[in-house]
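Note to self: keep these together.
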Amino acid sequence: MGKIGLLTFHYSNNFGGVLQCYALYKFLKLKGYETEVINYIHSNYKKQSILRGIGIRKNIFKSEMVDLVPSTLFKRILIKARYKKKISSKFNKFRESYMELSDEVDENSIISILYKYDSIIVGSDQVWNPGRRKQKHYFLDFGEFFKGHKISYAADSTISEVESDHVAHLSRALKEFHKISVRNDHTRLFVENLTGVKPPIVCDPTLLVSFSELVNKGKIRFNPEEKFILVYVLGRDINGSNKKLIKKIKEKYGYIKVYAIVIPTMKFNIPDYVDKVLYDLDPIEWLELFRKATFIVTDSFHGTLFSLKYHKPFIAYYAEKYRATRFIDLGKRYGIEGFIVNKVEDIDIKNSLDKTPDYDRLDKLINEHRKASETFLENALKR
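Structure:
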């Protein structure tokens, strides 16, 4: 087997996106495959202004009212201006230190490096979401410029529905894949509707490796013996408010400190219910906080997976419609529905704080899923 190129969202300053890429890269390297991350960054990504991510949408009437409050906008601009370069530098350092990257390419120049790869694996993450379906790259639709092996690993489409004007070109592109695997039921349906083939559902790459090589390499920002609630939220507050959610958790786990991780280069809220907000973590520091937390609150798919990896009590929630599919699927897949909620009231209905995940059962279930996923990759890479 020749060289493998990985094509995914490695470039964003998003902890889950970078760590899932690292995990697949690390897994393949450990298995002896020559692997490189295709350093593809769409040209639009570099054109982002400081106003992007502060809450103002192109159609201002679709913005939430809270995002249009002048004081909120001003605070977000100040925070982003203060931390943007620092957080970008930290993510770049991690990528360059722990992964082999190709030359940087964009949508116009990527074809110039495709000759290097015998196989390209696209995934994981939401590489096939509705916003990407007009772009050919994440569907490996390179025409005559790439004749190698096309594989998807744990790709996510966000939703199963496909607009009629995308059906023909997506169907053709997906049928040219040699092997397809997906991350959840709705993506399986997405692929099945377009190709007539039902692909296997594999585990997210972050479940393929232990990350033990990164443990204790990050800066410690707290007393190692300290108990704390960790909040990692990428979207809106839970229905009923995060402040009310934290109060419920404190009533159960004690009135301990609350730390929040916020990514200042994405659209973010300023949590006023925590003791400290951390805006400038690198991926290793992020892992360390998850590893040491007493309790975790998150609306992040990967935040939930790392809660499971580190055997933490947690509440995962989805407030936005587009987050619902992956959480509902994750809950059913690993039997953790009791810890995934949509509103604060669900916590009492499900008795979410009166129990903890059964990690003996979960470890066995995840281990079985991981082994099947490894087998898929090994078979997909055979020629």
